[in-house]
Every structure is written in C-alpha cells, then in structure tokens.
Recover the amino acids of this structure.
C-alpha cells in the first residue's frame, strides 16, 4: 500500500484557481494562505453589557455620562466618579479600563450604585484574537467555521482550487440503472451513483458516461471521449481475470500508460492505475465496497495531491470490542466498524459485494498484511468515513 501512495504522490498537474463568493466556498480547497488585513477585534471592546469606568475606580456611586450602543463611539471621556452605560460589542470610551456587568448594579436616574465588584475586566483588547498580517488560514478544505473566519476578516470572496474534473464509466453487460426492471442475472449499477456522489467533493466537476456493455469497441469509444473531457477517469468492472475483463488492454490502447495493476489491498486487489500526459485513470474492480474504499483511500489522495494538499484523513483511536480472525492475511485489509458502548465493533461483513454493511459503519480499521488476528481490547485506529 505504501508503494501505491508513493506512486500517487509523484503525480502532479497544473493547479488552476478561481475566486468564488463566500456562499460558494464551503467544501472547496483554499488555494493560498490567508493573512488578516485587520486587527481582530479592530478596537478595544466591551465583552458585557454594563458600566465602563476607570480601571482604578473605587467609588460605589457613579455618575452616568452617556449610553454607548454597539457600533457607536462614545464622546465622553471617563473621569474618576463617572461611567458610561456600554453594550456588548461597543467600543470602549477614552479613559475606561474595566466594565462592571449590569446585573452587579442598580441604576438610580442619572447615577448607578455598584453593588458587587467584577473580578474580570470584561474587555476584549484590540488585536487580542488576531493581528493584521497574521496567517489565519493555511490551504485546506474550507469548513463552515473557516467561512466565518474569512467573513470576520472582511473577505467577500476567496481564491479556491478548481479540483480536477472526474468522469465515470460503468462497465458490465449485467448492469441496469436504478429504476429499471432487472432480468435474471442482472444487478443494479450502484457504483456509478456512489462514485459520482463521492466525487462530488471539493468542487470536482463530474461527468457520467453511463453503462457501457462489455464490448471492446464501444468501450474504447467511451474511454476516449471521457479522456478528452476529464482529468481523472474512473471505470468500474472488467479489471480482473475474467474473459470479458479487457479494460486494461483498452486503456493501454488508448495511450494510457499503466503505473500499476493489482495491489495487496482487500478489498480492491485488481485495481489498475495509469496516466497519459493529461489524464489519470483508475480501473476499479466492479464490487461496490471495493470502489467505495478505493475512492476514499486512493482517489481522494490523488485529488488532494493534484490540488496541492496532503490528504490527511481523520483517525480516532479506540479499543476493539470483538476478536478479528483472518482466513487470509496476504493483503492489507480495510474492515468496516461502528462505535458501540465506547468500543470499536467490527460490522458483520461478507466481502466486497456487501455494500449495505457500510450503512451502519462509522469508519474503517486497517489490518496490516501478515496479521492473522486482532484481539478484543487491542487499540485500533478508526479512519472516519
Ligand atoms: N479468477 C479470478 N477471479 C477473480 C479475481 C481473481 O484474482 N481471480 N479477483 C476477484 C476480485 S478480488 C474482484 S474485486 C473481482 C473484480 O472483478 P472485475 O474488476 O473484473 O469486476 P467485474 O467482474 O466486472 O465485477 C465484479 C462484481 O461487481 C459487480 N459490479 C460491476 N459493476 C458494478 C456496478 N457498476 N455497480 C454494482 N456492482 C457492479 C459485478 O456484477 C460483479 O458481481 O473479481 C474477482 N474475480
Ligand atoms: O479485491 Mo476484491 O475487491 O476483494 O473483492
């Protein structure tokens, strides 16, 4: 598996960016570090509704000079024995050094009685959260909180990477689209819809080329069209040892140079990967759990690499809740698991056609090659899906 990542990490493509409004930026890949143009907050401001007074004020009855709402600037300087009513978010008036919250006082006309001292100053100082020139965001997949941070700095637009266009071809004479009637021996094309949904990330433009039967001429025609219209082309089916598994030959005839075929990974062993001067092509096995996992692990890795990011999936550590015994151990295996009573429970899973096993999965654990068993109680790392 490490060799597969090494090959993917060697791939590059020109990084193209675009400016998008903040409302379209969530989930997109930030193109470059963002520096704050302003101090945050831009002025010393009130953290509580209350009375702004001098830092050294000791009086218990203070004269109220004015009321300062958020957005307003007070005009009266705070002198000993005086204060101004101030609202949360308002700029601190000149001379003020602390704020007593309103519930610690009683107002009496033009004066206020301070009943209780406030141990906090209740001021957020200029630049306390970030300073102009600070690097606030580094390139990443933008999350809703990052959109808020960009807005707080005053950016209405942001520069994001245009993720590679992805095309998908389903192959297999036995496939029917969902909504159609199945004849004996046929199954639904789940890969097409699943992979397009997976690819609909980071702003990837996706194209669907439908189901191409196991007919070399028709396949070659669709492959050539998809190569012309996308950066990454995904195919499913026809990469194993069967009499109709001619995808590798068709890809090589279309000028796609094989970089590897067959990997020691379960599920997904027959994976084929190659490139030409503008395309990257994954010939994936037909089994739907294989396509799901191969996309999560390898295709996402390549997409982020081509976008200038290191793919960094989230893992959570936990204790295994049940023993795992393996009948074969010649491949690194991804197993679906769920959280139950603070333990990691392997989901009953019958192999790479058992797609619905993923319905209750929180993540995948990785069992390395040569490992024959993992005992209940052992620490495992769950890759969140
Ligand atoms: N003699 C051998 N046979 C097989 C081997 C092997 O090493 N030697 N490898 C097995 C493994 S592992 C896998 S995985 C499969 C992969 O085979 P293919 O890539 O050639 O895929 P197909 O045979 O076309 O399909 C496998 C399976 O998946 C179903 N399928 C295909 N497309 C879709 C789709 N779009 N949506 C849902 N399901 C799909 C297809 O009907 C088959 O049931 O080969 C083993 N055989
Ligand atoms: O390698 Mo295959 O994807 O296990 O069934």
């Amino acid at each position: 598996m490490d060799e597969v990542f090494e090959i993917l990490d060697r791939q590059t493509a020109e990084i193209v960016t675009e400016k998008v409004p903040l409302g379209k930026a969530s989930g997109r890949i930030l193109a470059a570090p963002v520096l704050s143009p302003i101090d945050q907050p831009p002025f010393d401001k009130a953290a509580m509704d209350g009375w702004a007074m001098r830092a050294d004020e000791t009086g218990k009855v203070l004269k109220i000079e004015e009321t300062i709402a958020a957005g307003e600037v007070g005009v009266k300087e705070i002198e000993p024995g005086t204060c101004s009513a101030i609202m949360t978010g308002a700029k601190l008036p000149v001379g003020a050094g602390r704020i007593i919250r309103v519930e610690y006082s009683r107002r009496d006309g033009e004066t206020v009685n301070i009943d209780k001292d406030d141990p906090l100053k209740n001021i957020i100082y200029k630049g306390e959260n970030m300073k102009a020139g600070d690097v606030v965001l580094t390139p990443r997949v933008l999350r809703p909180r990052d959109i808020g941070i960009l807005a707080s700095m005053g950016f209405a637009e942001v520069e994001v990477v245009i993720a590679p266009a992805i095309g998908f071809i389903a192959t297999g004479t036995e496939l029917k689209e969902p909504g159609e009637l199945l004849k004996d021996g046929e199954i639904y094309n789940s890969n097409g819809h699943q992979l397009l949904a997976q690819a609909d990330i980071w702003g990837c433009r996706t194209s669907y080329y439908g189901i191409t039967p196991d007919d070399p001429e028709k396949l070659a025609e669709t492959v050539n069209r998809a190569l012309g219209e996308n950066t990454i082309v995904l195919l499913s089916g026809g990469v194993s040892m069967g009499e109709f598994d001619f995808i590798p030959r068709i890809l090589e005839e279309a000028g796609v140079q094989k970089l590897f075929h067959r990997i020691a990974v379960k599920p997904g062993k027959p994976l084929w990967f190659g490139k030409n001067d503008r395309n990257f092509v994954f010939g994936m096995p037909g089994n739907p759990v294989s396509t799901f996992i191969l996309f999560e692990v390898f295709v996402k890795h390549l997409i982020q690499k081509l976008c200038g990011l290191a793919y960094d999936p989230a893992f959570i550590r936990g204790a295994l809740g049940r023993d795992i015994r393996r009948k074969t151990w010649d491949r690194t295996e991804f197993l679906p698991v769920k959280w139950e009573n603070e333990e990691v429970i392997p989901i009953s899973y019958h192999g790479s056609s058992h797609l619905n096993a993923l319905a209750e999965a929180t993540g995948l654990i990785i069992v390395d090659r040569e490992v024959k068993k993992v005992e209940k109680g052992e620490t495992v790392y769950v890759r969140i899906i």
About this structure: The chain has a mean pLDDT of 95. The chain has four domains: 17-36+132-161, 45-124, 166-306, 315-384. The chain is about 15% helix and 30% strand. The longest strand covers residues 332-340.
